[in-house]
Amino acid sequence: MKKNKIIFWITTSIIFLWEGVMPALTSQTELAKEGIRHLGYPEYFGNALVVFKVLGSLILIIPQVPKRLKELAYAGFLFDFIFASISHFAVDGINFQSFFPLIFIGILALSYISYHKLNK
Q1: Within its chain, how far is the Cα of 22 from the centroid?
Q2: Structural domains counted in the chain
Q3: Which 3 state secondary structure label does DSSP give 93?
């Protein structure tokens, strides 16, 4: 039980920091806006993405949030990582940036599995 709790909090904290805190702090920088434009998305898409990332990360990190909302947040992040990877493959070809979101799918999976083990 203690091992699952440690795995859950470490992986969920990584997701929270990477998908919640970092976008909230950097989304309005020129580098972030250029990244969205580079992938062919309009600027408002980046703003909407940041809002949903912050909300989703808060849902995952706050223990009192209902389980159904947590399931939706996990699914949302899975889609986010898959489509980020596809976007980079389509625009940039095969490189590290294309595979980077897939690494976060692994971290998200560890968080999801440990979350369910804790709630048995």
Answers
A1: 11
A2: 1
A3: coil
> Once rounded to an integer, what is the mean pLDDT over residues 36-65?
95
Averaged pLDDT for residues 53-72: 96
Under DSSP, the state recorded for 98 is: H
Per-residue confidence (pLDDT) for residue 39, from 0 to 100: 93
Which tokens in the block code for residue 95?
């490189």
Q: Where in 29-120 does DSSP place strands (E)?
A: none
Does 11 score more than 90 pLDDT? Answer: yes
How many angstroms separate the CA atoms of 15 and 69, rounded?
16
Contact 3, 110 (CB under 8 A): no
Average pLDDT over residues 67-91: 96
**pTM of the full structure:** 0.92
**Measured between alpha carbons, how far is 25 from 37 in angstroms, rounded to an integer?**
19
Structural domain span for residue 46: 2-118
Phi, psi angles (nearest 5°) of residue 119? -100, 15
